[in-house]
Each structure stands twice: as structure tokens, then as C-alpha cells.
Write a structure and sequence with these properties.
With 310 residues, this protein is mainly alpha-helical. It is built from 13 helices and 2 strands; from the N terminus they run ααααααββααααααα. Helix 8 crosses helix 10. The longest helix has 32 residues. GO terms for molecular function: transmembrane transporter activity. It is a multi-pass membrane protein.
């Protein structure tokens, strides 16, 4: 049992020394044993990889900066960035449609997310690559079999890169729609109502009040999607998209260094994902602001409308 606070103060006033609490952590041998086993396993695995002559480290070093590998790396970066930009735009559009008051827009957005999230990405990539079997040509003109002003052949228009971009971007848009919708719904509805009461339009409310606060919820999963997209581009190899894995496969079909070329591709994927993870960390710190700072920004955005301007 502990004594009363008054008794403690009286003992201190009487000059009695204050004895600090000398807490001792209980021994945890299980933690030390687990750490020793994990360290031993990592050292043993690293040693096995380094001294294994079948991995052909000289070949790995030789092809790590090969021009063909770097070209495939550049295609991977292009696919990732373009797919995420287009996917984010589609996701924002679909999220706004889901929150619309029109049942037609909500239904169209729900159908889009349902279909592209419900079918495998690999199937979608193969479908876009073979879209010419369904639509031999694309054109601009009068609908319902009317005359066409401009027409393109599908086999010439849908290259492996274009098919890969279509598959990755449209699929990503379906997932980004849910992320953006969750971020928008995380904002207090009272702030939207206050902004509308001041005369702001729906677009102004979304741009100046809702999105600045929703970014704190949207940014982390978007960064994860970007990192995942870097690795997902490897699926483009099924349609010979000329990205990193496709180039690595073409090389090992000629020199038969299968494992070495796969290690080369893996090293570059790790480098890209590491750089993206560091960038994600700094972006999250940039948007990780307190609620007071966000409210201050929102009030600053609302200030012109509080003076009678619409």
C-alpha cells in the first residue's frame, strides 16, 4: 500500500532522504536466444550466397550496368510513373463520381471499380495486348456504325508498351478510387457544410477545403501503391513489354545465365523500391501536420469567402 501524499511531503520536510526507485528489468533469455539464432541464420545465408560458385557473380557484375538492362530499367520507370499518374487521375474521377448525388454516376463508378478489381491484372494485360481481335480498328466519327473521320488499325496503335500502360493504369485507377474516396470521407462533413454555407462551389470546396486535409490519409497508401507498381511492371513480360524483366529474359535465353540475370533484375528492383520508400518517407513527413495547422490552412482558404465574395 502507498502512503498519503501529505505523509510524503511531511517526510521530505523533516529532512528524510528521498530514495530513488532502482527498477531492474527481468531477464529475458528467450529474446537473446531468438536474436542469436536470427543473427546466425543471416550470417550463414549471406556466406552461402557469397561463396556459391553457381551464382556466377562475375556475370552479375558484368550485366548490372549493361546497356540493354539500363534500357529496360528506363522503360520500367516510365511505365510506373505514367501508370500512377493516369491511375491517380482516374481514381480521383471515380471517387468523386462515387460521392456524387447522381445514381447514374455512382453506378458507373461502382461498375468500373468492381470489374477491374475483380479480374486479375495478368488477364487484363493479355486482353489489352490482343484487343485487335475484338476491335480491328479505332476511329473518330459518327457513332452507331456511321462514317469515320479518322481511323487507326488496332495492331499498329496498341503496341506492347501501350497495352502495358492501359492495363496498369486502368487497373490502378480502380484501387486509387477507393483510396481517394476513403481520404475524402475522413474529412469532417461539418467543414464541407460550412464552406458551402459561405457560398463556395462544389469544386472549390473539394480543392480548398477537403483535399488539403484528405491528403494526410491518401498519401501513405498511394506511396505503397507506387512501390507496388514498380514490381508489378514485371508482369508486362508476358506481352514482351521491353521492361526490366523482359530484357533480362531475352539475355538469359542467349547466354543461359538464368539465375544470374534474375539476380541482376532483382538488384535493380530493390534499388528502385528503396529510393521510392525514402521518397515516400519524406513526402509523408511533409504532409504529416497537426490538425491545428490544417484548420489554419482551411480557415485561410475560406477567408475571402467570409467577406462576401463567392
Amino acid at each position: 500500500m502507498t502512503g498519503a501524499p501529505g505523509a510524503t511531503r511531511n517526510s521530505e520536510a523533516a529532512g528524510e532522504p528521498h530514495l530513488p526507485i532502482d527498477a531492474v528489468r527481468p531477464p529475458r533469455p528467450g529474446r537473446w536466444i531468438a536474436a542469436a539464432v536470427a543473427l546466425f541464420a543471416m550470417v550463414w545465408l549471406l556466406y552461402t550466397i557469397i561463396v556459391n560458385e553457381n551464382l556466377h557473380w562475375d556475370v552479375i557484375v558484368e550485366y548490372l550496368t549493361d546497356g540493354r538492362i539500363l534500357g529496360g530499367l528506363w522503360v520500367t520507370i516510365q511505365l510506373t510513373v505514367l501508370s500512377m499518374v493516369i491511375g491517380l487521375a482516374l481514381g480521383i474521377l471515380a471517387a468523386v463520381m462515387q460521392l456524387s448525388g447522381s445514381p447514374v454516376l455512382r453506378g458507373a463508378s461502382a461498375l468500373y471499380t468492381w470489374f477491374f478489381r475483380g479480374t486479375p491484372l495478368l488477364v487484363q494485360l493479355i486482353f489489352w495486348f490482343n484487343i485487335g481481335l475484338v476491335f480491328p480498328s479505332f476511329g473518330i466519327g459518327v457513332p452507331f456504325d456511321g462514317p469515320k473521320l479518322v481511323e487507326w488499325q488496332a495492331n499498329e496503335l496498341i503496341t506492347p508498351f501501350t497495352a502495358a500502360l492501359l492495363g496498369l493504369a486502368i487497373n490502378e485507377g480502380a484501387y486509387m478510387a477507393e483510396i481517394v474516396r476513403a481520404g475524402i470521407r475522413s474529412v469532417d462533413p461539418g467543414q464541407r457544410e460550412a464552406a458551402e454555407a459561405l457560398g463556395m462551389t462544389h469544386r472549390q470546396v473539394l480543392r480548398r477545403v477537403v483535399l488539403p486535409q484528405a491528403m494526410r490519409v491518401i498519401i501513405p497508401p498511394t506511396g505503397n501503391q507506387f512501390i507496388s507498381m514498380l514490381k508489378t511492371t514485371s508482369m508486362v513480360s508476358v506481352i514482351a513489354g521491353a521492361e526490366l524483366l523482359t530484357v533480362s529474359q531475352r539475355i538469359y535465353l542467349g547466354n543461359f545465365e538464368v539465375i544470374a540475370m534474375l539476380i541482376v533484375a532483382s538488384i535493380w528492383y530493390i534499388v528502385l523500391t528503396t529510393i521510392a520508400s525514402v521518397g515516400q518517407h519524406f513526402i509523408e513527413r511533409r504532409f504529416e501536420r497537426g490538425h491545428d495547422a490544417l484548420r489554419t490552412k482551411v480557415r485561410r482558404n475560406l477567408r475571402p469567402f467570409g467577406k462576401g465574395s463567392v
